[in-house]
Amino acid sequence: MSTPSTSPDVRAGRLASEEYAQRFADATPRFTHTQALLEAERCLYCYDAPCATACPTSIDVPSFIKRIADGNLRGSAHTILESNPLGGMCARVCPTENLCEAVCVRNTQEDRPVAIGRLQRHAVDALMESAKPQVFTRAPATGKKVAVVGAGPAGLACAHTLARHGHDVVVFDAKPKAGGLNEYGLASYKTPDNFAQREIAWLLDIGGITIQNQWKLDTVAQLNTLRKDFDAVFLGMGLATTQALGVPGEALQGVQDAVDFIATLRQTEDKATLPVGRRVIVIGGGMTAVDAAVQSKLLGAKVVHMVYRRGADTMSASKDEQEWAQTNGVVLHQWLAPVEILGHEGAHSGQVRAVRFAEQALVNGKLAPTGREITWEADTVLKAIGQKLGNPVLAEAGLTLRDGKIATDAAGATNLPGVWAGGDCRAGGLDLTVEAVEHGKQAALAIHATLSA
């Protein structure tokens, strides 16, 4: 166990000012025109392609890659966006290594899949930056109005699909900016150059969509009003409440939810003004934990530990994400559960000093402490152990919940007539951006069919 420090070491400006832009630059450099052509030519354009089947939004992958090879980037982007209206963001953040690229036949032939995600980004970026980025035409107005609660991936995909079919959509969102996790919950190096807002501007260009910011669903009366004033309602508010560790010391200063840390970082233009601890501990094993840990290191933290209570194979962060964390100097630990967060005494009383962990092992299929413990010093502790719906209004309104989330049928219909749901707030699923997009799209098609009957 390390010797306890006498004072917390949390401050901004740990790096030279020019280093921040370099460190938070695009983590995945864009393909050049030549690189994209060469990579596209590696595709075998399989019939009944497994990559398309593995994509939650069913993008016709061989078709869009063939168009890139033919030099038709606009047609390629149209193919992508027809299936996934947030294809640009998904190309940046989707775990392609676990989905489309995992089943690419090139894995067996060359031990390296076609870089589907990077090709998708190449095509969509080219369209977004072109003189005429809009590829869709809105259908004639139907006179129907739909309320969408939540301007994250599910809500935006739902709104865009409905607007294309001629319906008017009002999107209600609790945040100052639309985008949900795309705007507030992803690492800055994944979405540089304000891409989330540029993609939203493209989505809104279809017409028929109004966004009302800083509107939160707080009462049953609000939901009832939406059901009365609109022809249908889609709930896509995501997961607003973070899970607690439930250990002593969790309320100490310096202990923070990782999602809040990431949101603050995303909304801060000058990263040099952001304080970060010299020693950071991130508790959790998912993508949020990786994003928080890596960005702590990029801000200048000296030592960053990312700690997970089970083994590496059960971490929700992909193998690529885990390797990315290690490449950036994050130390990964498994089979350790937090027992207590320790605070300073004296002048710095109330501020975090260290975290005590208990080693874990599987006993009859359940986690149990081995009796060994370890303590690491920490100036900052970031909690990333998952989120939950945490909105009592939903149950009070009569919505059926399952495992704390909204229960729906395959198309997203809830037990309340005229109300659909999708994204992370919907029970079941993978909690992925690309899946949320598909939820929104399928719910919109179901709503359209209902309103057209």
Report what the structure shows.
The protein has 17 helices and 19 strands. By secondary structure, the protein is an alpha/beta fold. The strands form 6 sheets. A 5-stranded parallel sheet has the order 4-3-2-5-19, sandwiched between helices. A 5-stranded parallel sheet has the order 7-15-9-10-11. A hairpin with an 8-residue loop joins strand 12 (336-343) and strand 13. It starts with 9 loop residues before the first strand and ends with a helix. The mean pLDDT is 95.
Give the integer mean of the pLDDT values: 95
- Number of domain units: 3
- Second rung of CATH, namely the architecture of the largest domain: 3-Layer(bba) Sandwich
Q: In percent, how helical is the residue content?
A: 25-40%
Q: How many separate helices? A: 17
Radius of gyration computed on alpha carbons: 23 Å
Measured between the Cα atoms of the first and last residue, the distance is 68 Å
Broad structural category? alpha/beta
Shape: globular
Write a concise keyword list for the protein shown above.
about 450 residues, Fumarate Reductase Iron-sulfur Protein, Chain B, domain 2, 5-stranded parallel beta sheet, FAD/NAD(P)-binding domain, alpha/beta, globular
Layout of helices and strands, plus pairs?
Elements: E1 10-11, H1 17-23, H2 33-40, H3 50-54, H4 61-69, H5 73-83, H6 87-93, H7 106-110, H8 116-128, E2 145-149, H9 153-164, E3 168-172, H10 181-184, H11 195-204, E4 209-212, H12 220-229, E5 232-235, E6 241-242, E7 255-257, H13 258-266, E8 276-277, E9 279-283, H14 287-298, E10 303-307, H15 319-327, E11 331-333, E12 336-343, E13 352-363, E14 366-377, E15 380-383, E16 387-388, H16 392-396, E17 401-402, E18 405-406, E19 419-421, H17 433-452
